[in-house]
Amino acid sequence: MADTLTLYTNPMSRGRIARWMLEEVGQPYEVVNLDFTGSMKTADYLAINPMGKVPAIRHGDTVVTEVAAICAYLADAFPDANLAPPPGDAARGPYYRWLFFGAGPLEAAVIDKSLGVTIPEDKKAMVGYRDFATMIDTVEKAVSGDGWLAGDRFSAADLYIGAHLMWGTMFGSIEKRPAFEAFIARLAERPAHQRATALDDAAMPKQDG
């Protein structure tokens, strides 16, 4: 597609995941950096994302919010990047599974833990992730070994789950298990991740003094 790609982001947000995905796609894109209390709450940006949050992308006339949706959209919009198993491929199932697992059970459990939310034993059946221990053990099993989440090739699902593990282990919301550290190390070697990190780090607010 020749339509312009624009990323709306902040380098201290989940926008870092969307930036990494865009670098993996390898298509030119524009960046609009927004601040949390000012430009992110203007009428112009709220017309793009009424939640007043980043990231969001605009691709021509198409607007996509929510990081997992952005990853899935870009993988399908630019199939030459080979970031998703093609429709009909058996690997498409686990690909969707882990994208949505990251957006649902993984993120919800980590946020609840960070907020000090404890799920009572008699309420666990109501909760999508059941409890943190069950969720994180499931992720550990999935990323163990030297394969990828959706077959033998890296995909947007690995990027999305891996970004959660990178962030969580860095800030202590996810413990540093050997399987996580090995998976993160493999992801950190990807040139697209290194480019995205350098770009976002350069866009961080400068400290006075």
Secondary structure elements and pairings:
Elements: E1 5-9, H1 15-25, E2 30-33, H2 43-46, E3 56-59, E4 62-65, H3 67-77, H4 92-114, H5 132-143, H6 156-171, H7 178-188, H8 191-202
Parallel strand pairs: 1-2
Antiparallel strand pairs: 1-3, 3-4
Helix pairs in contact: 1-3, 1-8, 4-5, 4-6, 6-7
* Number of distinct helices: 8
Rg is 17 Å
Give the CA-based shape.
globular
Number of domains: 2
Helix content range = 40-55%
Total number of strands: 4
What proportion strand? Answer: 5-15%
CATH topology of the largest domain: Glutathione S-transferase Yfyf (Class Pi), Chain A, domain 2
- Sheet of most strands: 4 strands, mixed
Q: What average pLDDT do the residues reach? A: 96
Provide the structure class.
alpha+beta
- Give the termini distance in whole angstroms: 45 Å
CATH class term of the largest domain: Mainly Alpha
How do the SSEs run, as a string of H and E? EHEHEEHHHHHH
